[in-house]
Amino acid sequence: MKKVFLFFTLLFSFTMFSQEEDVQSSYTLSLEEAIILGLQNNYTSQIAGKEVEKALKQKWEIISQGLPQISANVDYQNLLKQPVTLLPAELAGGAPGTFVLK
After folding, report:
1. Using an 8 Å Cβ cutoff, are 37 and 29 in contact?
2. Domains contained in the chain, number
C-alpha cells in the first residue's frame, strides 16, 4: 500500500512541475503593440470588421444592379443560295400563264 501511495505522489508531483514552465512565459510589449494586439484579438472588433466587409459586398451588389446589363443572342442562317420568287409574267408584259423569276 505504501508503494502505491508513493507512486501516485511522485506521479502528481511531476505533473505539477511540468505545468509550471508554461505559466512563467510572459510578453514584453510597448503601449502601441499592446493596443494593436488587443484590437486584433478583440471579438467585437473582429465582428465589426466582418460586418464592414459584408456591407461593402452588399453595396457592390446594389451598384451592379444599376449598371447596364449585357445580353447576347446568336442566330444562324444559311443564305448561300439566293431565294427565288416566281411572279406572273403578265405583270411584266409577258405571255399569260408563264412566270418571271425575281
Report:
1. yes
2. 1
Whether 14 is in a domain gets the answer no
Q: Which domain holds residue 58?
A: 29-65
CA distance 82 to 25: 91
Instruction: Give per-residue pLDDT as tens, 29-65.
Output: 899 999 998 888 888 888 998 999 999 999 999 998 8
* pTM for this predicted structure: 0.36
Q: Is residue 84 part of a domain?
A: no
Non-local CB neighbours of 90 within 8 Å, separated by 6+ positions: 96
pLDDT at 6 over 90: no
Quote the cell numbers at residue 26.
Answer: 510572459
